[in-house]
């Protein structure tokens, strides 16, 4: 039977053994209630470990896992295997079958003409997408076979194949710079899917087309779409519907309680700092901060990694608030100097209201660095502290621009914005928290390009939004403002279109870096970096009420929901 150990880093939370004859029970050492003072979650929540009371049929879970593993190992039809792999990934349960999935994809890759054994557009596109997602270098030239020899356009028969168009559109999202054929595939499939949507008489077909166009799989969080996929899953040639749905529901319930427990720890830690009580204008949003690592590190076993990363993310928000709504330029300069010095004695030079935040940052990051040293044998604290100094330097530069009324050039703004986004700071911490740089061939400088693209996507998405966080009252900048100053004839619509194109370009760069970094030792980091970019639209898609409905729905689904709803 399968054994799942939760919390390797360090192993201090709890152990879930799946496959034993006893019922699954969770023993939470933290309080069963905490305050989540955010828009939809301002009441005290009471965590009840349902499996502790109701019991968990671990034997049933193990048998379901065994059945799926058997199917992955024995399916004769390659297409069925690829469809099954895709289904497992979309349901968010692929972590139980990594060895089997890798074996299937490696076999597909080793067959040099693997694409040509598939006869329809959807199967070829699926094979291409699954291989590229796992870091296999497969050529996009395979899509040239769909073009007419006479004029180089895509065949008209393809325009009527909805499944084929969906497969092509999904595959095109993994393009890198210079792959013009995938740009053509994206434009062709997107245009014809929109036409199919306008003429569709099927509600199910229309729903699938809408979801594909708005949330293509590669650029979306699988966990965000898992509920819909599971509930609408029809099986694979008559097999797997009940098996996979039951397995996915059981796995979801386990994972939900893991996340609830982690959120309780993060909330308790945040409350213990006392910063929200001392600085009333600080955002008090541990739930929102925890949602980042919950989405980015999706393997249930990475419990303590998520908790540590949530602490880092909280300080990005805290420091952002200090710079945006609290400090004068003189005070912010002192704070920046103190962070760069990284000495507790530096607090004597700070204004009173900054001292507690500085001490909390200093102690938390040093503690994280020490934990990494204990587990992996390397002390990254110097590199960690450097990232906070760089972040404050970037925040200070922006503060000086806005205080003096300076609108920087687009290049200046983006160069600084890559740092002030906080993405680089968090990815450096994640790099060490995941144990990279010790017994692997990947080094910190190897992630710089991936970090830059992720930071650019966040910065541009943030600036693309028409609303700001409702708790932010400070002056903030915008790439669009800089762009329109440089291009005086540009309309706001043209500026926004330019930003969208820049985001698409950064995704291509991110895809390229993903292919370069997908070695066994760095796979977890590369996938987490992609997830951070996928999370951005949820965090910055404000509605007219300055709320984040997509994010709120995601949180309710992952922490409080029921897949059978």
From TrEMBL:
Keyword Magnesium annotated: yes
Pathway in which this enzyme or protein is active: Secondary metabolite biosynthesis; terpenoid biosynthesis
Keyword Mitochondrion part of the UniProt annotation: no
Cross-referenced InterPro entries: Isoprenoid_synthase_dom_sf, Terpene_cyclase-like_1_C, Terpene_cyclase_plant_C1, Terpene_synth_N, Terpene_synth_N_sf, Terpene_synthase-like, Terpene_synthase_metal-bd, Terpenoid_cyclase/PrenylTrfase
Cofactors, names only: Mg(2+)
CDD domains to which the protein is assigned, alphabetical: Terpene_cyclase_plant_C1
Domain Terpene synthase N-terminal: 64-203
Residue span, Terpene synthase metal-binding domain: 271-509
Gene Ontology molecular function, alphabetical: magnesium ion binding; terpene synthase activity
Name used for this protein in its record: Linalool synthase
Organism for this UniProt entry: Solanum commersonii
């Amino acid at each position: 039977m399968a054994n799942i150990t939760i919390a390797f880093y360090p192993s201090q939370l709890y152990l879930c053994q799946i496959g034993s004859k006893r019922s699954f029970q969770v023993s939470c050492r933290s309080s069963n209630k905490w305050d989540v003072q955010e828009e939809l979650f301002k009441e005290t929540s009471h965590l009840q470990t349902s499996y502790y009371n109701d019991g968990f049929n671990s034997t049933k879970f193990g048998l379901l896992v065994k059945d799926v593993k058997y199917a992955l190992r024995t399916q004769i039809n390659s297409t069925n295997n690829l469809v099954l792999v895709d289904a497992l990934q979309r349901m968010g349960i692929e972590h139980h079958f990594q060895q089997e999935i890798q074996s299937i994809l490696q076999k597909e890759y080793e067959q040099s003409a693997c694409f040509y054994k598939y006869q329809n557009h959807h199967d070829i596109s699926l094979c291409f997408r699954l291989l590229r997602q796992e870091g296999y270098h497969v050529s996009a030239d395979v899509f040239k076979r769909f073009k007419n020899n006479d004029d180089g356009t895509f065949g008209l028969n393809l325009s009527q194949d909805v499944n084929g168009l969906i497969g092509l559109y999904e595959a095109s999202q993994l393009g890198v710079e210079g792959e013009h054929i995938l740009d053509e595939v994206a434009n062709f499939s997107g245009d014809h899917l929109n036409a199919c949507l306008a003429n569709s008489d099927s509600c199910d077909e229309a729903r699938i087309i809408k979801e594909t166009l708005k949330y293509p799989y590669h650029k979306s969080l699988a966990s965000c779409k898992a509920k819909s996929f599971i509930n609408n899953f029809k099986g694979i040639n008559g097999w797997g519907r009940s098996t996979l749905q039951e397995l996915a529901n059981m796995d979801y319930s386990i994972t939900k309680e893991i996340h609830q427990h982690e959120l309780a720890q993060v909330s308790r830690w945040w409350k213990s700092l006392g910063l929200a009580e001392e600085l009333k204008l600080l955002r008090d949003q541990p739930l929102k901060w925890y949602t980042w690592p919950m989405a980015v590190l999706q393997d249930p076993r990475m419990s303590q990694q998520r908790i540590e990363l949530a602490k880092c993310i909280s300080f990005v928000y805290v420091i952002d608030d200090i710079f945006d709504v609290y400090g004068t330029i003189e005070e912010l300069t002192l704070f920046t100097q103190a962070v760069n010095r990284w000495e507790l004695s530096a607090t004597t030079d700070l204004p009173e209201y900054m001292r507690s935040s500085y001490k909390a940052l200093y102690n938390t990051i040093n503690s994280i660095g020490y934990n990494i040293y204990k587990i992996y044998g390397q002390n990254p604290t110097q590199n960690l502290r450097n990232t906070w100094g760089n972040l404050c330097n970037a925040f200070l530069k922006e503060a000086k621009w806005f205080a003096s009324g300076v609108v920087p050039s687009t290049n200046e703004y983006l160069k600084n914005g890559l740092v002030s986004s906080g993405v680089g700071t968090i990815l450096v911490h994640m790099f060490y928290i995941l144990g990279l740089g010790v017994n692997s061939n990947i080094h910190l400088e190897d992630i710089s390009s991936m970090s830059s693209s992720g930071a650019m996507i966040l910065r541009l998405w943030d600036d693309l939004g028409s609303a700001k966080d409702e708790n932010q009252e400070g002056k903030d900048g915008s790439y669009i403002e800089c762009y329109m100053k440089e291009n005086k004839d540009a309309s706001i619509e043209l500026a926004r279109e330019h930003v969208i194109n820049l985001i698409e370009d950064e995704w291509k760069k991110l895809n390229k870096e993903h292919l370069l970094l997908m070695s066994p030792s760095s796979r977890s980091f590369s996938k987490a970096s992609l997830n951070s970019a996928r999370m951005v639209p949820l965090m910055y898609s404000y509605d007219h009420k300055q709320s984040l409905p997509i994010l709120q729905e995601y949180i309710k689904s992952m922490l409080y929901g029921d897949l059978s709803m």
